[in-house]
Amino acid sequence: MEEKIIVENVKVPGISTRVSKVMYDAMLQAMWVVLPTKSPGLTQAEIREAVVPYLPESLFPGGAKAGWWAKTV
């Protein structure tokens, strides 16, 4: 059985969703690689594009669903 974690919706307080821990952790690690430590940072669109090379192909084939996961993380 796949391990899940709970993520909360920051726009809608009280709403949470159970998601794949493996997918979440993979995206989190990719985001740590691409996010700059100084301003101005990246836009959501820039993050979606930048993380793709750092995501496991087995989980995100061709960057599939990277946008949703980037927004979730």
Summarize the structure.
With 73 residues, the protein is of the alpha+beta class. It contains 3 helices and 2 strands, in the order E-E-H-H-H.
| Large-scale geometry | globular
Radius of gyration: 13 Å
Number of strands: 2
Mean pLDDT value: 96
State the separation between the terminal residues, measured CA to CA: 22 Å
Helix tally? 3
Helix proportion range? 25-40%
Widest sheet, order of strands:
1-2
Percent strand equals: 5-15%
* Count of discrete structural domains: 1
**Secondary structural class:** alpha+beta
Main β sheet profile: 2 strands, antiparallel
Compressed to H and E, one letter per element, the order equals EEHHH
Low-confidence stretches: none
Helix and strand topology:
Blueprint: E1 4-8, E2 16-20, H1 21-34, H2 44-51, H3 66-72
Antiparallel strand pairs: 1-2
